[in-house]
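User: Run a structure prediction on this.
Assistant: Running it now.
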Amino acid sequence: MTLQPDVKYTATATAQGGREGHVRSADGLVDLDMRPPAELGGPGGAANPELLFAAGYAACFQGALGLAGKAAGVDTNNSVVTAHVGIGPEGESFALAVTIEVTIPGQDDQTTKQLTERAHELCPYSKATRGNVEVTLRPQTA
């Protein structure tokens, strides 16, 4: 049985036209045309679902890294998290693959690795993808 979170905030966005359409959040903060990237045969030059997912995942993981750092007594304020979200064919459809790069200036390899792994346990995006999307963690020394 999966426990439901005590939801404090709900983001709402509406898409029209799918990958060749438009997305807009209910609050108007996101208001973007969508186009498939050139690598997938599209015109590129606009946002796409993978780009938005990468931005959200990187920001969320950064927050989880801050929690992990705080619990371990490690300052992660100057850390950098980069999310690479790839998409490619899988059977009759497509699938995602994610690589998360983490750099924590002033920390050794072992500390960066431990905090990256802990952040992966805490991050809601990581929880949502676990068992569904291949996620590769790449802790790096600054």
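The two ends are 41 Å apart (CA to CA).
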